[in-house]
Amino acid sequence: MPEARQRDRIDRGRAVALIDGNSFYCSCERVFDPRLATVPVIVLSNNDGCAIARTSEAKALGIRMGDPYFKIRDLCRARGVRVFSSNYTLYGDMSGRTNTVYRQFSPQVEIYSIDESFLNLSDVAPGLRVELARDLRATVRAWTGIPTCVGIGPTKTLAKLANHIAKTVPVLGGVCDLTDPAAYTHWLCRIDVAEVWGIGRASLAKLQAMGVESVADLRDLDPRPVRKSLTVVGERIIYELRGAACLPLELVPARRKGCAVTRSFSSRITERAVLEEAVAAHATRLGEKLRREGLGTDHVTVFYHTSEHDRDEPMRSVSTTVQLPEHSSDTLALIKAARHGVARTWREPGERPWRYSKAGIVTNDLVPLSHSPRALIGALDRERSGPLMAAIDACNARWGRGAVVPARAGLVNRRDWNTKFEMRTPRYTTRVGELPVAHA
Amino acid sequence: MHLNRIDGLLVGSPDAVRVPLIGQALCAGFPSPADDFLEGALELPRWLVPNPPATFLWRISGSSMEGAGIYDRDLACVDRSLKAGHGSIVVAAIDGQMSCKRLVIDGNVARLAFCNPDLPAFAVDELGEGVIWGVVRFSIRWHVARGQRA
């Protein structure tokens, strides 16, 4: 493998850190409520469906990722588990704060997800990386209250692996550095190959059949034949494990190619008026998202369907694409198209109505509006709608989301079908009316 | 990013510069589930808030800090990056409840004190570890009737 060795040499000195919040959503809740510090805490998904974040105390009780809440409700009650709906407003704000702290430690930060970021540490001398990571963890903890773990490696895949090691081996104090050759040699033969980022269940079975058990076993495979069974992704993982970077830091998020707004209803709906209001609300949200990035779409796909859990009831799944005369991000044009999609596909229910559980709007092939071609016939009135949309967006920025909505979309707090967050804590950091209270 | 901020300061008048406490972020990997719920942060002028990611607003409830000029329903701007010392006004967890008190350090004993002559001197003798949440940098008080408050 002379090629691989060469790349090894090229990448020597490169260091990437992956830092993530421990049980991030639960930790956000704990920052503002000291009573949660030592008790098990879980956070539920939309409509309070499943457990999506668990503290170590909750994990110890056997609560798994994705457990439906109705199945663990009794356990939670009996064992004193504190249960919360997702407070995404709070988590988004806390995520922004942690990333602001990260940027003081490295100017190159890729925000990978709401609670994970990659930092470029190549300019930090090898001997100082662990120290810097400890300082970073302590600073984030002190300033934002969020506990974190840091994994450092010559590549993203190794940084992710190092992060896993930092999380699961308490003696490391939350930091693991695989750019240190001794640590690299020590850990790679001790970690199960299943922990490698990007190795799915199907690949895992194939690897096990090939006798691959540890991460080191995978690293030492010849990448070329592997390409046949594990695709180019598997080949790339092997190079990354050898320290040859195949995945660069994405410092600027790629331009959005498609956009979707989909929601499960809080309860099943059967009426056309409610469905129309829901798709109009989704279209409103789609418009906001497109305008934020200066993009436009020339079509919307509207879908709605019954639940796969309602097997013994009439089932129906509808999807239709409505063309717009030209690219647009005008909420009113999007609503018109979305409602047309419903009108075109709505079927009056018979004796046993269809009970719809979810609706959504999807677009693909977004283009920057500033250089999209104009329609010769049926052009939308951009000159008038632009300032109107800008005014609506400005109102919503100033007085809160949903302050101004098209009547078709219904007032936000009258939308009975809206996703439920019944056990949500206050939006402590973004609403003056919901600030945390200190007793004096 | 930092350069832009300085440019902004140079062009506009410093009084007019308002920096949101925190910026919103787009994720490169996973789309953020928080995307549909992001709200503009509570804006405070930058010259009052030197360290936005560590700064939080709290609502005060109660009268025990009137001696320090902090009254019921005032807002406290709490900076978690400030080190608490003798005399600092702090927000701290006391018996599972968040409280605003004055930190008194006497030799190697730290205690939390009320600031109200009608109350006993100390709320907490012998402070444990990690109970101080943050240091109050300043407080905000409305001097108009409640009804007129924006």
Structural features, described:
The complex is a heterodimer of chains A (440) and B (150). Chain A contains 14 helices and 14 strands. Chain A has 440 residues and is α+β, with helices and mostly antiparallel strands. The longest helix of chain A is centred in the middle third of the chain and has 21 residues, at 272-292. Chain A is globular. Chain A has a 5-stranded mixed β-sheet with strand order 5-6-1-7-8. In chain A, strands 9, 10, 11, 12 and 13 form a 5-stranded antiparallel β-sheet that branches. In chain A, strands 3-2-4 form a 3-stranded mixed β-sheet. Chain A is 40% helix and 19% strand. Chain B is mainly beta and 150 residues long. Chain B contains 1 helix and 9 strands, in the order αβββββββββ. In chain B, strands 3-4-9-5-6-7-8 form a 7-stranded antiparallel β-sheet, with no helix packed on it. Chain B has a two-stranded antiparallel sheet with strand order 1-2. Chain B is globular and about 50 Å long. The relative contact order of chain B is 0.16. Chains A and B meet through α5, β5, α6 and β14 of A and β3 and β6 of B. β14 of chain A pairs parallel with β3 (55-61) of chain B.
